[in-house]
Amino acid sequence: MITQRPKGTQDWYGSNMHKRTIIEGIARKLCKVYNIKEIITPAFEHTVLFQRGVGETTDVVQKEMYTFEDKGNRSITLKPEGTAGAVRAYLENGLYAESQPTKLFYITQAFRYEKPQSGRLRQHHQFGVEFFGSSSPLAEVELITLLMEFMKELGLKGAKLHINSIGCKNCRKTYNDALLEFLRQHEGQLCETCRERMQKNPLRVLDCKVPSCKEIVKDAPRTIQYLDDECQSHFEELKSMLTTMKIPFEVDTGIVRGLDYYTKTVFEFVNEEGFTLCGGGRYDGLIHEIDEKQDIPAVGFGFGIERIINELEAEGVELEPEPTIQLYVGILGKEAKSSAYQLVHKLRNAGVIVETDYMDRSVKAQMKYANKIGAKNTVIIGADELANNLARVKNMETGEQTEVTLDQIADLFL
Ligand code: HAM
Known about the structure:
Elements: H1 14-33, E1 37-38, E2 44-46, H2 47-53, H3 59-64, E3 67-69, E4 75-78, H4 83-92, E5 102-111, E6 123-132, H5 137-154, E7 160-165, H6 169-185, H7 192-200, H8 211-217, H9 229-244, E8 250-251, E9 265-270, E10 276-282, H10 286-290, E11 298-304, H11 305-314, E12 327-331, H12 337-349, E13 354-356, H13 363-372, E14 377-381, H14 383-388, E15 391-395, E16 401-404
Parallel strand pairs: 1-5, 7-8, 12-13, 12-14
Antiparallel strand pairs: 2-4, 3-4, 5-6, 6-11, 7-9, 9-10, 10-11, 14-15, 15-16
Helix pairs in contact: 1-5, 1-11, 5-9
Residues 81-83, 112, 114, 119-121, 124, 126, 128, 130, 258-259, 276-281, 283, 300-304, 306-307 line the site of histidyl-adenosine monophosphate.
């Protein structure tokens, strides 16, 4: 137990860590040109934020949150997603009072007590963007464009954009009536949670994971048939802009998303196996829900970093390899140790990737080690090299040796 990580968690090291660093680097680089600023919010928030924000009837709030009482008897929850915390921070720090829009991105961990299975972790990581202040579908287009560029830079080709509109509060009333009428006809076959959801929030029945419920809702009325004029024209404008931008998409009327805050547009990027890699949408009512003095539209997405890594593997995409060690500095004799280490320090300061001996190995063992760690070149520094200010740098691939003064070593690599 003591040497076993909790189920559904992962240690980040080696090649996965390297991939994650590249993914985050691309995300940061893209956000910079889109003028999207980074935000980091706490790993935990007051439970009520998620209950109100994500929604009482969602699976996330009902079954998946890591909630506990802290020593001051406050109910605290580890964040199950990034949006609610970003909205809270936007409100608490008065970011809405600055010229709008406010565009924020985050790279965060998220915690959900999910059944461990492929692609579902109890601690996962998301790259997310929240775009506050614009009710124009151009905000959706901006996020979708960024996501297309993000995947292109990563070399991913297999994800397809699916969009839908679930309408606003206004459309939801008529839709809920129609959905309830349909669900009542099948009430006996629905799971207990769904029968409860029917009373409180019938839309949530549509994302129930129980197979028998899934089968029933296949024939349920679709939100898109109940859009009011404004939501309809928003959706039409979005589709027309995507077409102008030559962004391929599919309207998937089955997407409702599992979180309560969405209004109008919802979208997902889905891979060839139908697995969702990224999800997002508009949430024009959430800010008002959290602070009734404000009424600000918003849209955002969350992209699972672990899912990106799985998809890179599935599509056979090789990311840029880890940088190799340019030079191994071997140390000959104890007396040379500190001077040799001074040289290592100087070379590193000059930007050369250098490794050396910390184990007091013999020169032969040091060369074996240099080979093992893939050092491209080696040099041995002993009393002679230090006295004559001359050393031989050996290319490990060709065996070629270059004699240089100690100050010239860095020049070979820069
Ligand atoms: P979500 O669809 O719940 O949306 O999660 C976003 C993405 O996080 C998913 O598409 C998936 O890649 C990843 N993800 C979610 N749960 C897990 C899990 N248990 N294990 C591994 N990966 C997971 C949200 O969280 C919204 N906050 C997105 C958003 C931002 N909407 C508007 N703004």
